[in-house]
Amino acid sequence: MTPQALQYLASQPWALETKTLAVMKDIAAREWQITEAVAKQFGERSGPNSTKRDGVTLIGVNGVISRYASLFHAACGGASVETLAKEFNQALSDPDTNAIILNIDSPGGQVNGINELGEMIHAARGTKPIVAYVGGAGCSAAYWLATAADEIVLDNTASVGSIGVVATYVKQKHDDKDVFEMVSSQSPKKRLEPDSQDGKATYQAELDQLADIFIDRVARNLSVSRDDVLAKFCQGGTAIGQTAIDKGMAHRLGSLENLITELQKRKTTKNMSEHFSINVAGEANTTEIAATLKQQFPEAVSALIAESVDSEPSALSAAAEIAQACIEADVSSMAAKLLNSSTTKAEAFQQIEDAKAIKNACAAAGIEASFDKIMADRNDLGKLIGTAIHEAQASSEQDTTSHITSSGGGVKIDTDEIYKARQQGQ
After folding, report:
1. What sign does the CA torsion over 390, 394, 400, 406 have?
2. Domains plus CATH for the chain?
3. CA angle in degrees (0–180, nearest 5) for 222-224-227
4. pLDDT for 23
């Protein structure tokens, strides 16, 4: 079993803390059989990595990350990219999930597959809130995934970073056996020895290329420059809590429970906007809708009215401007009525414009002297129109004396005769 385990370990590049990689080497170097006893010793996953709490789905990213379930995944209780991707997509498409938390406590893992999962998470930004919470370690490959989320929240003791790629190369020895391995002449680099000059240069270039991708993704995900990542993000080391935040490696401190509560509150606000509706029977007009809003949401309507009034300056705050506008419009008598706390500046200027239009109309109709009488009814459209018609017709009558009679020392106007004459065009 040992040769196969060592071969697996040596054949993969790892974005992983060095001390964890050393432990994995020790595990692989022993004569371990992956049996039920081993699984029990390290613990088994009895279900998926994710749980849901009132609209917030938590996806656990714990232990060593590998692309598929493997020897080390089974023995060390790690997570696989395959499973994480499946659960992330399920949470993303779940209508009852309003926010996603990547609950991370991992030293990192296998490079293979991490970029794909990170790109999947990054592409989902804006669909639902996605927050990475690091309560313990969020290192190397795990930090790569964390940066892909909308935000990184840390416990005060959590460590993040370890940006880089490492690889272990094992040169196998076969005791008491002569082993001959031949490589096709067209493929001189197929079996480069890591301790040779060409081998070391080739393997180093591969690791550097993977690390460049890692660094570029972190820079993009956190909206910082590549130079900042190289200079400030610990150069392969880690930073803890507030120090990591000060360096720009994470966004804020917090606890998992508070983060869950915060995202649940965001969900409640979102649901109110999604499901907000008013109950109006049939095809309602604007007036009916306004009445329904007042009935169903009186506090909200009052708040909107108050906000609207508060946001508009009052006529009193622009007294000089309003008085000058009244003089220019030749409606000086209006100024005293407009300058009060209940009239806004905008309303006052609108009334002045309306009065100017009415005055011009009266002048055009030859009833300019009737302006004050007509303006007295400006708040009642029906009366205003009636008064304007009456004044216009009265001014056009040449003689109304035939409709005026004297009786007992008094004077009486026969209004019936006046209107009859108007109807006949007299």
Report:
1. positive
2. 2-171+194-266 (3.90.226.10), 277-311 (no CATH), 315-396 (no CATH)
3. 130
4. 55
State the Cα–Cα distance between residues 192 and 194, nearest whole angstrom.
6
**Separation between Cα atoms, residue 416 and residue 426, nearest integer Å:** 13
Q: Using an 8 Å Cβ cutoff, are 238 and 162 in contact? A: yes
Handedness of CA 331, 332, 333, 336 (dihedral sign): positive
Q: What is the pLDDT of residue 101?
A: 94
Q: Are 207 and 13 in contact (CB under 8 A)?
A: yes
The more confidently predicted of residues 97 and 415 is 97
28 contacts 14 by C-beta, under 8 angstroms: no
- Burial category of 266 from C-beta neighbours within 10 Å (exposed 0-12, middle 13-18, buried 19 and up): middle
Question: Which of 57-66, 67-76, 131-140, 405-414 comes out lowest in average pLDDT?
Answer: 405-414
Could you write out the DSSP letters of every residue in 210-264?
A: HHHHHHHHHHHHTT--HHHHHHHSGGG-EEEHHHHHHTTSSSEE--HHHHHHHHH
Rounded Cα distance between 214 and 13, Å, is 13
Name the residue among 271, 267, 269, 291 with its Cα closest to residue 280.
291
Stated as kind and residue range, the H or E segment containing 28 is helix 18-29
Paired sense of beta strands 14-16 and 151-154, if any:
unpaired
**How does DSSP classify residue 104?**
E
Q: Which residue has the higher pLDDT, 25 or 155?
A: 155
- pLDDT, tens digit, for every residue of 220-230? 999 999 999 99
Q: Are 115 and 216 in contact (CB under 8 A)?
A: no
Inter-axis angle of helices 298-311 and 286-296, to 10 degrees? Answer: 110
Q: Phi/psi class of residue 282: alpha, beta or left (left: φ > 0; alpha: ψ in -120 to 50)? A: left
